[in-house]
Amino acid sequence: MKQDPTAQDAGQAPHGAAARRGTFRPGERVQLTDERGRMNTITLTPGTAYHTHKGFLNHDLLIGSPEGSMVESNVGQQYQALRPLLSDFVLSMPRGAAVVYPKDAGQIITMGDIYPGARVVEAGVGSGALSISLLRAVGDNGYLHSFERREEFADIARGNVETIFGGPHPAWKISLGDFQDQVVAQEAPGSIDRVVLDMLAPWECLDAVATVLAPGGVWINYVATVTQLSRTAEAIRADGRFTEPDAWESMVRGWHLEGLAVRPDHRMVAHTGFLMVTRRLADGVTGMSPKRRASKTDFAQEDLDAWTPAAVGERSVSDKKLRRAARDASSTVQTKRNQEQSQETETRQDGFGEQ
């Protein structure tokens, strides 16, 4: 008899995999797409309904149905039901800070060579979008230590990570505080394989990165502006403990597909940030200078003062909004847990009744 893959022992499957398989369950997030391609994500709750200006759709029609089902509202409006992909979840999850877009997260995973079992540290957790991608890459047997300065952001990230993985991830640790101080206190020298920084001034962390990163390890930075990119690159070159930095940006342009009307979309995801990668050299080795070294640039005090969140275009987020986003992220996890517990209780009661 062929074994149902959804019946595998959860301990043998990667963390969170069981939640991605099988029929729709109470407390699960489901993405509904209507006939015009508009998408909405709902959390399945028995006895409730999804309401629009075109009628309502009972959640009970979806609970127990296989993924990819087609359902109809009370007025005949059709919906296609699927589990949200990671890219869908990232763009719709509760947030307190701007998220790392999927196109950049994919580049970080690939160009940063994040592999299963790797030991990774990151700083600038934000809403947890990049943390989710990193955890998927390192796997259950890897290690991701995230550092965040603001407790509100950490709470939002924790809620989002637990939502998509169905609970705390075994490879994840999150700490509050400044990266350059905390990472050297909590991680042994040379014990980290990869460092990922998404922060305002990564050049301030140069000594800390050089301390914890193993020889040959990769350091990848995500910065928003040319001035940040320039100063980080010059600091790395002047330090001498790393290889020549390499920088790039990615742009994604979708295409309109309708019969013979095949053309680029009018809108695209253009610049979101710059990525820069460098590698740690062995102790005592000095990095090679490029054949054509750019002239050094002096930074005056007014230049240093210019690198503030407001100056580089970052919006300040109110404490009230952060607290609301943290509550939303936490409530999604709790709702799912409550629905699962309720379903287990009903199952046990039904079993007693049959006896």
From TrEMBL:
Keywords, alphabetical: Methyltransferase, S-adenosyl-L-methionine, Transferase, tRNA processing
Compositionally biased tracts (Basic and acidic residues): 345-355
Region (Disordered): 1-34, 308-355
Domain of life: Bacteria
Protein name (Swiss-Prot/TrEMBL): SAM-dependent methyltransferase
Record's keyword annotation contains Secreted: no
GO cellular component, one term: tRNA (m1A) methyltransferase complex
Lineage of source species: Bacteria, Bacillati, Actinomycetota, Actinomycetes, Micrococcales
Biased composition (Polar residues): 329-344
SUPFAM superfamilies to which the protein is assigned, alphabetical: S-adenosyl-L-methionine-dependent methyltransferases (SSF53335)
GO biological process, one term: tRNA methylation
Protein source organism: Arthrobacter psychrochitiniphilus
A molecular function GO annotation: tRNA (adenine(58)-N1)-methyltransferase activity
Residues annotated as domain tRNA (adenine(58)-N(1))-methyltransferase catalytic subunit TRM61 C-terminal: 91-256
Keyword DNA-binding: no
